[in-house]
Write a structure and sequence with these properties.
Elements: E1 9-13, E2 19-20, E3 23-24, H1 28-38, E4 41-45, H2 53-62, E5 72-73, H3 75-86, E6 92-96, H4 99-107, E7 111-112, E8 119-122, H5 130-141, E9 146-148, E10 154-155, E11 163-164, H6 166-177, E12 182-183, H7 190-199, E13 206-210, H8 213-223, E14 227-230, H9 237-241, E15 249-251, H10 254-269
Helix pairs in contact: 1-10, 5-6
């Protein structure tokens, strides 16, 4: 089990961990205050690429959580990093995503282009049209690199609907073209590797906190980073029983984690 007294930075999933839809969990604000008092940094990590980082800052602030743009990490950053390193000649992209996602790539120096693209990027497109879906399939079928920002099939919500996410959209495109995408986002461990290197800390000094076993927990385990599963979102305690490799911590909510971090730090000081 991980030593919580060594934690210097916490990577936080958002929906299902800190809030559900538009409802902030009661334990979230005290937990974040505990991190501040302990001097533990935090990064807000989401697989949801329908919003820009600026929009996530605004959403968090609306909920009473102060955040800066550099506090937010989305899979779009991982895709940008990959394209720059592995496909430096690629500049023109078909981007099947919201205007916010298109804006993120344009800020990074790429050009949204449906006519002469060099690669295809698919995200969580809440503005999806049949015309764009078919056009994207055409370019994938032509052999262009096919990239998915994340694998989630559905997005969590407190509304009476199912939010069809990037993974499900890509499943449609794969069925139509016979090609599978290169997938970024959780559970791809490169996210935590990038954050660890950027922060200049060791893997054991980082803690991943989330509510999904197959994304949050799997990513942490593959990256060699300690992980805490909270039961406020998708996962239930019985889901953990059959796992060969269990999370380091299984907690009711982030409030419980905050108490444990304070206790571990106090014990280490004695």
């Amino acid at each position: 089990m991980s030593d919580l007294s060594r934690v210097r930075h916490v990577v936080l999933d958002m929906d299902g961990t800190l809030y559900k839809g538009t409802r902030l969990f009661a334990q979230t604000t005290p937990f974040l205050e505990s991190l501040r008092i302990l001097g533990i940094g935090r990064t807000f990590l989401t697989n949801n690429t329908s919003r820009s980082k600026t929009e996530y800052v605004a959403k968090l602030r609306h909920m009473g959580i102060e955040a800066l743009i550099e506090d937010i990490y989305t899979p779009a950053e991982s895709v940008v990093t990959y394209l720059r390193a592995q496909m430096p000649a690629v500049k023109r992209l078909v981007i099947l995503g919201t205007p916010s996602l298109v804006e993120e790539f344009e800020k990074a120096g790429f050009i949204a282009d449906w006519d002469t693209p060099e690669a295809v990027v698919v995200g969580f497109d809440t503005t999806l049209t049949y015309e764009h879906l078919c056009r994207t399939a055409y370019w994938i079928d032509s052999g262009l690199p096919f990239i998915a920002t994340h694998p989630d099939l559905v997005c969590p919500t407190d509304l009476n609907t199912v939010l069809v996410d990037c993974g499900a959209i890509c499943a449609c495109l794969t069925a139509a073209t016979g090609r599978k995408p290169m997938v970024f986002g959780k559970p791809n461990p490169s996210i935590l590797h990038e954050l660890r290197d950027r922060l200049q800390i060791k893997s054991e000094e980082m803690l991943m906190v989330g509510d999904r076993i197959y994304t949050d927990m799997m990513m942490a385990q593959e990256a060699g980073v300690p992980a805490a599963l909270v039961l406020t979102g998708e996962a239930r305690s019985e889901d953990v029983d059959g796992l060969a490799l269990k999370p380091d911590f299984i907690l009711d909510n982030v409030g419980q984690l905050g108490e444990m971090l304070v206790s571990a730090r106090n014990t280490a000081r004695r």
